[in-house]
């Protein structure tokens, strides 16, 4: 995203990357190279898809087919999906890291400077509602290009000085759901991972959300209403972080928000 840097890695850089332990141990490693800082993402070993098959079956049975996941976990195909999605999203004009090198076992992408959206929203300071709206606009920008994300959780958006960029494209939801379903899923993941961090100013967020849904296709709006109805019982979960923890309160916040919107 920084045009002044050469985007080519030199043979020396690649040798250092290949020899590095970091990405093998931690999966993701940031390294300095002659083309600037880069992120090396190692391939995860393939795992059984049985848990994913069972998850999909449960989602289907619960009327939540929108949340089905691709039947793939790690391995060379997962890396191929991420490399392909990075190229497709970039071609569509979506802000994603530049892909710099691919080889069996790992790929190299541009390092994006800035906190992730989850961290940015967790900070007490600044106009957090404005940051939340920037994230909303980033998802809208993806959808307006007839695209979807992989896992639109706050931690997978980087707040760079040039704007918000999306990372982590290892799953292509279009392998198992339609585009409008994948887009509805993006919104659910976005709301689920952000709302609980901003318990105040719900009324303003609801009016932003009404405008968002109004600008989406009719099908996406229908899928959102369906999700809102299916998830509505979760609004009765506790809403205090302590002692319940983030999984409970994030589900509660999203279910309650969507229920208020859907019934209005
Ligand atoms: N291009 C990037 N620029 C900056 N940080 C990145 C980049 N890609 C990944 N990261 C960091 O590495 C973490 C893990 O990468 P991610 O692609 O999300 O993999 P995972 O599938 O393990 O979640 C991210 O949460 C982020 O902190
Ligand atoms: Mg991630």
TrEMBL record:
It comes from the Bacteria. InterPro entries: Kinase-like_dom_sf. This is Serine/threonine protein phosphatase.
């Amino acid at each position: 995203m920084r045009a002044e840097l050469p985007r080519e890695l030199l043979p020396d850089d690649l040798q250092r990357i290949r020899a590095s332990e970091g990405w093998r141990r931690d999966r993701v490693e940031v390294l300095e190279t002659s083309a600037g800082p880069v992120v090396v993402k190692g391939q995860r070993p393939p795992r059984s898809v049985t848990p994913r098959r069972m998850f999909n079956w449960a989602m289907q049975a619960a009327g939540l087919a929108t949340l089905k996941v691709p039947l793939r976990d790690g391995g060379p195909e997962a890396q191929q999906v991420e490399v392909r999605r990075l190229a497709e999203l970039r071609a569509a004009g979506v802000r994603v890291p530049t892909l710099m090198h691919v080889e069996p076992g790992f790929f190299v992408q541009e390092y994006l400077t800035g906190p992730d959206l989850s961290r940015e929203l967790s900070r007490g300071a600044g106009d957090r509602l404005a940051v939340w709206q920037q994230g909303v606009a980033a998802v809208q920008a993806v959808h307006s290009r007839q695209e979807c994300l992989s896992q639109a959780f706050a931690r997978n958006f980087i707040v760079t000085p040039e704007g918000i960029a999306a990372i982590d494209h290892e799953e292509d939801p279009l392998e198992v759901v339609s585009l409008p379903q994948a887009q509805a899923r993006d919104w659910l993941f976005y709301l689920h991972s952000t709302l609980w961090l901003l318990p105040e100013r719900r009324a303003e967020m609801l009016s932003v959300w009404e405008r968002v849904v109004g600008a989406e296709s009719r099908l996406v709006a229908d899928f959102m209403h369906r999700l809102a109805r299916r998830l509505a019982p979760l609004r009765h979960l506790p809403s205090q972080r302590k002692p319940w923890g983030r999984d409970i309160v994030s589900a509660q916040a999203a279910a309650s928000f969507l229920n208020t919107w859907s019934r209005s």
